[in-house]
Design goal:
Rossmann fold; 2 domains; 334 residues; 19% strand; 7-stranded mixed β-sheet; alpha/beta; single chain
């Protein structure tokens, strides 16, 4: 049987080449790889229960920006339960998951995130990002870290002034702080500077570690202070019920940074509105996912503040809150 003619061979070759051209064009369905859902790591020094209101604010803002968890974004959480020594390992876990962005919720968490990676963008929430060495400047962070400041170090003078107005017979103030915390050390220096200007004598009492609270409480009790200034930290905040029980037992006027302390029985709190700060963190995450570089994304300063007064605690302590102070309060607990 004779084989195919040269003309038949050419026709077959052209048909095959034509099929190849069609396969490469849009006329035939071609499956494209599905876009990879970004994973965002959330690292906090406090416990999950303590962080939940802030996590809720963060997630709510992401939803407002159009993100759907599990579909267009995945959130990986790690909580150190008030133990800073756990943060480096937790940060390394998030790096191992190849997260697109890491949120450092609190100064120790932000420092641990920065130590864990020089390439993954970090949205930090810290008291003094420049003083802690997280960024070069507020306007031009300059590395892989940006975020928000909760201005905790800058507000110490205002808190001490309010404490003096409410309890003027308080020449000696005990400062309870967590000694291993870098940001707490910065805040202590700010409190000492403010105390000199206000003519107050400070007695710092440092909690030396997570197992040192009882001995620190004994030292505070021996000081017989007129008032108490608490420098907040993840360790303090995670154990706030225990701390508040002690402060209530010594019957001393006290000032804090977060409203939760006053809701729990403290006298006054002055500081940033933390849910608003965490909403801002979600906005920063959105900007980075859309192409912004942390090095060029300025650190955001707080604009919303809480000043909470507990009148029931004031009555227990025999204090009358001046009307001029009450007029400044954003919340009064009866």
């Amino acid at each position: 049987m004779p084989g195919p003619s040269r003309r038949q061979f050419l026709r077959a070759s052209l048909a095959l080449s034509g099929f190849g051209l069609l396969a490469g064009c849009s006329l035939l369905p071609v499956s494209a790889p599905a876009p990879k859902v970004p994973v965002v790591g959330f690292l906090a020094g406090v416990s999950q229960a303590a962080a939940q209101p802030l996590v809720d604010a963060f997630r709510q803002r992401l939803r407002e920006l159009g993100y759907v968890e599990g579909q267009t974004i995945v959130l990986e959480y790690r909580f150190a339960d008030g133990r800073d020594d756990q943060l480096p390992g937790l940060a390394a876990e998030l790096v191992g998951l190849q997260v697109r962005i890491m949120v450092g919720a609190g100064s120790p968490a932000a420092l641990a995130a920065k130590a864990a990676t020089e390439t993954i963008p970090i949205v930090s929430i810290s008291g003094d990002p420049v003083g802690l060495g997280l960024v070069a400047s507020l306007a031009q962070p300059g590395g892989n870290v940006t975020g928000l400041s909760n201005a905790s170090a800058l507000l110490t003078g205002k808190k001490l002034q309010l404490l003096k107005e409410i309890a003027p017979a308080t020449p000696q103030v005990v400062v309870l702080w967590y000694a291993p915390s870098a940001i707490s050390a910065i805040e202590l220096r700010e409190v000492q500077n403010a105390a000199r200007q206000l003519g107050l004598h400070l007695q710092p009492v440092g909690v030396q570690g997570p197992d040192d609270f009882d001995s620190a409480f004994q030292m505070v009790a021996r000081e017989q202070a007129d008032a108490l200034f608490l420098i907040d930290s993840a360790e303090m905040y995670t154990r706030r019920t225990r701390v508040l029980e002690f402060i209530s037992s010594i019957q001393a006027p006290s000032v804090y940074a977060r409203r939760e302390w006053v809701v729990g029985g403290g006298l006054i709190a002055y500081g940033v509105n933390f849910p608003e700060v965490y909403r801002g963190a979600a906005t920063h995450v959105d900007k980075i996912l859309k192409g912004a570089k942390p090095a060029d994304l300025p650190i955001e300063q707080p604009t919303v503040f809480d000043f909470v007064v507990n009148l029931k605690t004031a009555q227990t302590l025999g204090l009358t809150i001046p009307q001029s102070v009450l007029q400044q309060a954003t919340e009064v607990i009866q």
